[in-house]
Amino acid sequence: MKRSLALLMLATAFLAWGCSGVGFKKTKTGMEYKIISNGKDSLLRTGDFVKFNYRISYNDSTIAASYGFIPGYDMVDSTPRYHDFSEISHELRVGDSVICFMLADSLATRGMQLPPYFKKGTKQKMTLKVLQVIKGGREGALADYQKELEKYKDRELAQIERFLTDKKITAQKVDNSVFVETIQQGTGPKADSGKYVGIKYTGTILETGRAFDSNVDSTKQTIRHDMAPYYFVSKVNGAIMGMLSGVATMNLGGKSRIYIPSILGYGPQGSPPAIGPNEKLIFEVDLVDVKDSVPQRPGMMRMPTREQMQQAARAKADAAARAAKRNP
């Protein structure tokens, strides 16, 4: 998966929970922090690319974590980002850990969009441990990240394979990326790379079986949208990586289940509120259209974006709050 270094950085708008205690300091922006020093190396310097483990939590619930998943990466900068751990990077060494508390009010004053759960007057918590300084600068960090991606993808594929074995499901491993279970073999044109394809689908979480979206059954939608086929360019763009790989194996009229590791789905950030961090997915897919090229003005239905799902969650919470006021 090709991603810019910006996407390798931890999305620090989603940091932690709690109440700070004795021994905490404050940055210029008011972020509270405490360093637990275990490192003996030199302090981190401007320009260093750092690899670290992290855990983000709020009200005792983990929002995201790298432990057992993929470490975070960041560059130590002379101009830190506002109100996050980059403010104290120069005070850390390899081996050090730090606890940070961010204030919703401080971020809100800068006009930053907060996740729906992060309410005015509350704090978020992040714990972080510095693992190493990556040699080779930006290129070295990107190369190390790609290695971590592959290792994690292999672990997830092994987990999916065990799931299929336990359920006695026969599925084909495709491009070392996804598993495809053929339910009905199509007889029409194949969805080769570059073809413009339309699908009917229902998406569920592999571990729980909970549905998060569908254009077949509206009761399985996180937010309402029309039931038209979803169009994208096979194996090129317009869908998550796992979908691109899986659908390319199908023929028109076919029906398959595609088992997708999180790293080829929505990754460590998930797609709140429908999909949590690092969740493996199953898509049941009917291939209903295959065209040789993309129409000039395609009228295509799109899956809800993460932002739309977040807006839907906020609207639902606001409506519940208004109802509570009307009926105390």
Overall description:
- It is a single chain.
- Helix content is 20%, strand content 27%.
- It is built from five helices and 14 strands.
The structure class reads alpha+beta
Query: What's the quaternary structure here?
Result: single chain
Biggest pleated-sheet summary:
7 strands, antiparallel
List how many beta strands DSSP finds.
14
Q: Unreliable segments (pLDDT under 50, ≥5 consecutive)?
A: 1-20
Strand proportion, as a percent range, falls in: 25-35%
Helicity level, as a percent range?
A: 10-25%
N- and C-termini, Cα separation? 50 Å
Count of separate DSSP helical elements: 5
Q: What overall form do the CA principal axes indicate? A: globular
* pLDDT averaged residue by residue: 87
Rg, nearest Å? 22 Å
Question: Would you list the SSEs in sequence order as H and E?
Answer: HEEEEEEHEHEEEEEHEEH
SSE inventory with pairings:
Blueprint: H1 5-8, E1 25-26, E2 32-36, E3 49-58, E4 61-65, E5 72-75, E6 97-103, H2 104-108, E7 123-134, H3 137-166, E8 172-174, E9 178-184, E10 196-205, E11 211-214, E12 230-233, H4 241-247, E13 255-260, E14 281-291, H5 306-326
Antiparallel strand pairs: 1-2, 2-6, 3-4, 3-5, 3-7, 6-7, 8-9, 9-13, 10-11, 10-12, 10-14, 13-14
Brief summary of the model shown:
The protein is of the alpha+beta class. Helices cover 20% and strands 27% of the residues.
Can you tag this structure with a few keywords?
328 residues, alpha+beta, 7-stranded antiparallel beta sheet, 5 helices, 14 strands, 20% helix, disordered N terminus
